[in-house]
């Protein structure tokens, strides 16, 4: 057997996200143009809620003034307490349950929704202390929350969401529509 094919060992391999997670997208959440969310689903059913790279918060050099996990007077995602192997006690989220509100320094406020059904396992308190994590590393250290869908629903997470290819088609159509508008 002759093995003369060269392998470039200096080339970077796929990232952890690319390797172990499936990306799902929700475009124009609740009818708000370009307010796109991303769900990273791991093979173990855990889902990580992040902002899609096209979200207005991540565009135009915006800066974040405040991130608030308090949804109403009676509901704060920071009070979420999960215990045990079966993750009892986590707040149950529906598809359009608000997870947090993000206010930018220009006073624009964005509500981030769960985009899926499941138990809230944790919120990322690190982004409360260091808001730049959300801007610089939205898919990793700047994630918003971790959600666990019910076992029987875990294979259906992507049913109401867009695949990466479908999302890229939506973004391309948006760009084409903007180009087609008279200036």
From TrEMBL:
It is found in: Cell projection, Dendrite; Cell projection, Growth cone; Cell projection, Lamellipodium; Nucleus speckle. It comes from the Eukaryota. Belongs to the ABITRAM family. One of its GO terms (molecular function) is actin filament binding. InterPro entries: Abitram, Single_hybrid_motif. This is Protein Abitram. One of its GO terms (biological process) is regulation of actin filament polymerization. The gene is abitram. Keywords: Cell projection, Nucleus. GO terms for cellular component: dendrite; filopodium tip; growth cone; lamellipodium; nuclear speck.
């Amino acid at each position: 057997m002759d093995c003369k094919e060269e392998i470039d060992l200096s080339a970077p391999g796929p990232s952890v996200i690319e390797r172990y997670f499936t990306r799902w997208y929700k475009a124009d959440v609740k009818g708000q143009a370009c307010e796109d969310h991303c769900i990273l689903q791991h093979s173990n059913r855990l889902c990580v809620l992040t902002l899609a790279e096209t979200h207005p918060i991540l565009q135009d050099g915006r800066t974040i003034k405040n991130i608030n996990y308090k949804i109403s007077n009676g509901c704060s995602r920071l009070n979420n307490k999960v215990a045990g192997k079966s993750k009892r006690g986590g707040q149950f989220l529906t598809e359009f349950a608000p997870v947090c509100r993000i206010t930018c320094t220009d006073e624009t406020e964005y509500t981030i929704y769960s985009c899926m059904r499941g138990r809230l396992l944790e919120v990322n308190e690190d982004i409360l202390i260091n808001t730049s994590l959300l801007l610089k590393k939205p898919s990793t250290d700047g994630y918003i929350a971790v959600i666990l869908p019910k076992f029987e629903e875990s294979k259906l997470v992507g049913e109401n969401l867009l695949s990466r290819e479908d999302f890229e088609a939506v973004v391309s159509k948006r760009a084409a529509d903007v180009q087609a508008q008279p200036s």
